[in-house]
Amino acid sequence: MALAGPADLNLLRTFLAVYRAGSFTAAAQVLGLSQPTVTTQIRALERQGGRELFERRPRGVVPTPVADELAARISAPLDALAAAAGPGARAETGAEPVHLAGPAELLCTLVLPALAPLVADGVRLRVTAGLTDPLLEELRAGRHDLVIATTRPRGRTLTAVPLGDEEFVLVAAPVWADRLRGRLTVEGPAALHEVPLVAYAEDLPIVRRYWRHVFGRRLNCRAALTVPDLRGVVSAVASGAGFAVVPRYLCAPLLDSGALVQLDDPEDPPINTGYLVQRPGTPANPYLPRVRDHLLAAARTW
Fold it and tell me: Is residue 91 part of a domain?
């Protein structure tokens, strides 16, 4: 987006607040402005650039591709400027919320309980669930402050540190485990062909990886049930729907109680490393380092 004439920093700050908050009202609260003032400033910026920045929706706004491009250009310089200027008077009234994003299952099961003490201590959070690739693009554009990613991002536009490893386990309810007892050792994965497969997605990425890593062969079956949330997969399997491959942290209590049974115990189970990702540079928000450091410390106990 090319602006006609010098850019007004106040307009750009307001734009970035709306972009990150997802609504004029939320941005107004963050900036300490009235909602009509925020609306007026965004319209002024749109007139200056000659392009619409946001699609107005009943529950907030959605950035246009023009807004994504503008946010990618200005977020790092404005954050650096805010950090150089210091917190100022805004620190007295509270910093902006930290925008954290990641997989829904990990956020709800481990991350939010770990961050609860910070929220109780006054830290403000805005949490978004989603897939890694789109979330990393939104992080680059300035829409999030921290992203928990299931893969390490490429390039130098983002910095990533390992958060922890998740181990994948092959599980079923006792009713299926009893039928399979001993057969998996003798027959290998062919013993599972008669058991319905419950999976996260139609292309079975987690199950295929387990088959390659543990059994050394390609998966040759289709899912009987797909649920786009691993918590739903665990729930269905514990209720007797079939078998699944899921992260251990999601099913550990059910394994301990006997509601689920681990069908295989390989010496080298497949794992996936998660990363805590942010934009480089000194964050302007004093809450962000607290959230980051607290997460890294908590992850050592997961």
Answer: no
